[in-house]
Amino acid sequence: MIAKIVTSEKEYYSNVFAKFNQGFNETVIVFNNENEQFELIKVYDGSRSFKRKVFIIDTDMDGMVEKSIIKLSLINGFKNCFGYDWIINNVKLIKKIKANKKVDIKYIELAKKTNEKMEINEWKYVKNEKDAKDLLSAVSRFHDAIINNISYEVKEVYKDPKVVQVLFTGCWDCDILLEFQSDVLIHFSIDENNSYEIMDSNILFDDGYIYWVDDDIENIKEINDNYTYFRGRFLKWKSITKK
Q: In whole angstroms, what is the distance from residue 16 CA to residue 71 CA?
């Protein structure tokens, strides 16, 4: 599991070494290689208004273990816990990280080596269900987002567009650019009676095509003219985050 951490002071990528709670109380433990320090960060900062600080861009949880509850004290703790065994089953280590205290050098070296294996690319291709899950996770399924712009490139006159880029804004503190390639289909219309805010979305695969649709449907046979959707043979995306 890999995350992009964005705050007013810094921006960096890290493996997620542990994650706790769910929803707006979700919290993660990550590692900042620059200052060689573990950090326990709430995904959403709700001090004034909800602002997202952690963007999960890779949802792979291989090697992680699960615990229902981790007690830090008689009254404090975490629920719905996932993480690597060496951290999720080490309450003393979690407490030190939470308190910003110095931890054993062996854990620092382990985190550094784990982060060195990360492969971060600006553009990410959606080739399978796992890639689709990563995209939907990074943007909270496009909830509350709007389509800000659609641009396309036509290689030949009177031919369908070969490349279409769709810019989504308002994706919980980031923008997302989707690029559909080859044999592209666009179904988008402006209706004064409809809300432009997206409530949910899904990515579907069928007959060599990849679809993005503005609802959580499970089959392309459910798609009708009431939906906004895009289709292409290839799909890639990138996030645009702001401090």
A: 20
The terminus-to-terminus CA distance of the chain in angstroms comes to: 22
Tell me, what DSSP letter sits at residue 207?
Answer: T
Tokens at 212, concatenated: 């993005």
- Specify whether the CB–CB gap between 119 and 231 falls below 8 A: no
Strand partners, 153: 163
Whether the model clears a pTM of 0.85, i.e. scores above it, the answer is no
Q: Looking at residue 216, what DSSP letter applies? A: -
In which residue are the tokens 């009676």 written?
193
pLDDT tens across 84-130, in order?
Answer: 999 999 999 999 999 999 999 999 999 999 999 998 888 999 999 99
Instruction: Tell the burial category of 9 from Cβ atoms under 10 Å away from its Cβ (0-12, 13-18, 19+).
Output: exposed
Distance (Å, rounded) from C-alpha 232 to C-alpha 211?
7
Q: Where do we find the tokens 């979700």? A: 26
Residue type, 6: V
In sequence order, the β-bridge partners of residue 42 are: 27
The sign one gets for the Cα dihedral 95, 96, 97, 103 is: negative
Please tell me the distance from the alpha carbon of residue 97 to that of residue 15, in angstroms, as a whole number: 15
Burial class from Cβ neighbours inside 10 Å (0-12, 13-18, 19+) for residue 230 reads buried
Rg (CA), the chain: 20
**Among residues 54, 61, 101, 96, which one has the least CA distance to residue 80?**
61
* Continuous segment of H or E residues that includes residue 93: helix 91-98
CB atoms inside a 10 Å sphere around CB 123: 9
